[in-house]
Amino acid sequence: MREQTPTHFVGLDIGTQNVRCVVGLVDESDPTKPTIIGHGLSPNLGMRKGVIAHVDDVADAVAHAITEAERLSGVHIQHATVNINGSHVAGINSKGVIAISTANKEIGPDERLRVEEAATIVQLPPNREIIQVFAKNYRIDGQDNIKDPVGMHGVRLEVDTHIVTALAPNVRNLEHVLDRTKLAVSHSTLSSLASAEAVLDRKQKEAGTLVIDIGAGTTNLAIIEDGEVHHVAVIPVGSINLTNDLAIGLKTELDIAEKVKLEHAALDDSNKDLNARVEYDGKTQLFEMADIKMITEARIEELFELVDKELKRVHRSRKLPGGVVLVGGGANIPGIVAFAKEKLELSARLGRLQPLGGLVDVVDEPAYATAVGLMLLDMLLLPEDGSRPGKPNASAFGLVDGILGKIGFKK
Q: What is the pTM of this model?
């Protein structure tokens, strides 16, 4: 029996430090503006740099975040679109070629699917698997830069793709966590691509833009160019590294270093005080602001050096007209936008969510970009008949143009 069309959509961001859940629906009076009806947040103690280290702890964090979102939204959550994270995620380029075998040489959806499948025939280690395939552009008989070949005629069809792979054991661990919480996965995608869906407009996707999602344990990168996914990468450095540096440099406890980071870490001169005052466990401690700024600058500069190294690897260093968009909890450091502009020599800005209605007061911040993007994809990739799971349908509801409409999603 076919399920009814879902009335709500869920994004679940399983992060290194926190699990965030966002519930939304489509307002019939304004289908272009999704409405947030619930959100949940739970600390996560079972992850290390985006990889599951303790299944029980992660499952508990997911369950608590979902319960909080259910309490606020008043709906029972059974499905969600979730993120895949960790430095084990890697992207490679691949090409596929087929001959058109139809009598009239017209290219149909089956031929497009065949050539994309041909591109996935690559040599991978036995412990890695393909989790997503992005078609960047097609060629018909040598004619390049074709976005959709369906309906065209030719003899030879080629496609350039970007294939995302991950370590199979880590993917199985994620599935194990979700099985324990009895949550069905509608779709899964990378954190950076979900963030891109939440904060990029069509012009930025076409021009060439880098999304930098600075999480607690990892920094996710996604280059979106010509409306397609050009490159993805995960750097195993995040804001936890800054907390550790502050603990070492200031000779203090980790909990105090975390408070120093959240309350006083900055990359500009907005704070004119000479000392930072931190209240912890009934005691007041003072730290020199010059020391805090020096440690913060050193860590974030190293992070942007790693980002630029990744851009150089794909020949996009200083060559992205759309600039840099910063999201994630680490993007809240004062002065980081100007710092990114200086170090990467590109325009930079903080990510701003697409227009949303409802309970946006909490989710309208960089740390929620991935969760909101996953919720939007849960809407965009709904099958045309409304059943779950099924094939992607990026045109549903007339929402923001989905960069992920032609992706082969893993269930």
A: 0.89
